[in-house]
Design goal:
43% of the residues lie in helices and 14% in strands. It is flat, with a radius of gyration of 13 Å. By secondary structure, the protein is an alpha+beta fold.
């Protein structure tokens, strides 16, 4: 089994490739986002593959460093 850091690095590399492909396909930027912010006001997430998602850049910029429950 791979170590968590290796899995996170692999996920980041794959998401970066997918972001470029989606940009070409849809015509706008995509960001790798931490679902739970690393430095949130009320919660702090971890930099692990389980806390990553690929979302449109405008959504990531809109939510800034907040965490919405629900």
């Amino acid at each position: 089994m791979r170590a968590p850091d290796e899995l996170t690095n692999f996920a980041m590399e794959e998401m970066s490739k997918m972001a470029e492909m989606r940009k070409e396909l849809f015509g706008f930027d995509w960001h790798i986002d931490h679902v739970v912010p690393l430095n949130g006001a009320k919660v702090c997430g971890l930099h692990t593959w389980r806390n990553l998602e690929l979302i449109p850049a405008h959504e990531n910029l809109r939510k800034s460093n907040t965490f919405e429950v629900g």
